[in-house]
Amino acid sequence: MIQRNSANSTYQRRIPRIIHQTWKDTSIPSRWNLSVRSVRKLNADNFEYRLWTDNDMHEFVREKEPDVYANTFLTYSHNIQRVDAFRYILLYHLGGVYIDMDAGCSKSLDILLDALEALDPQAKHLAALPETKPNGLSNDFMISTKGHPLFAELVSHLSIFNHNYIVYYLTIMLSTGPLFLTINERLFSRSSGTISVRIIEGKAYSPLLLWFAGGNSWHGRDAQIIKYIYEVPRTLQLASIITAFLLIFFIYFLYSCYRRRSVR
């Protein structure tokens, strides 16, 4: 399907051919040399490549979203939250393709972008997000036109979701990570025919277009617990989630009681 649509030359290109990647500085870890090299080499003819460092990230957000920068971006407890938030801000203002360092290319990403533009020839705003199993979306590979309303909502909702959710991994996932993206995409209104958001099945791009070397260095021990809850069958998943929330509520209740007694 991707190859057939990419042959259609009647549509207009709307997605900027820019590939964005982020790292704390310009010294990329050796474990990602192959993946980054494949991204740059296989897309060199049709894409601009941008590597954004932490300093670049701060400068960009401070300039483009000064209120978000001062009131939300700087208040995050963990740098990975700033990196996640930066992805949404970056794609909103510049558009293009965001791809994690641990993702390598098997073919040029132009094939996928051509297909997306051919599928929605009348849409002014295009976005594509990868699904993750068993449900939900991932923010490790995102595609968007500049100024997409979904990414405008993601940026505007960063402050709303900026809370400590007790568990480190859950705080990351829900404040800026895949859970944040999934919830906001589900709530996003596609009332206009000029707006397109497509969910890409894993088999549609991996390993046909992308392969993964492995990353997620920020995951902690609590990630294994939540990952287990996320992957078990739906009935057990629901029971686990309810139990987890009840436990969190109980801990919060005990903490509130302790605070009130301390005040007395």
UniProtKB/TrEMBL annotation:
Gene Ontology CC annotations of this record: membrane
One matching Pfam family: Gly_transf_sug
Entry GO MF terms: mannosyltransferase activity
Keyword Transmembrane helix tagged: yes
Organism superkingdom: Eukaryota
Keywords: Membrane, Transferase, Transmembrane, Transmembrane helix
GO BP annotations listed: mannosyl-inositol phosphorylceramide biosynthetic process
Residue spans crossing the bilayer: 165-183, 234-255
Listed PANTHER family: INOSITOL PHOSPHOCERAMIDE MANNOSYLTRANSFERASE 1 (PTHR32385:SF15), MANNOSYL PHOSPHORYLINOSITOL CERAMIDE SYNTHASE (PTHR32385)
The protein's name: Uncharacterized protein
Organism listed in the record: Rotaria socialis
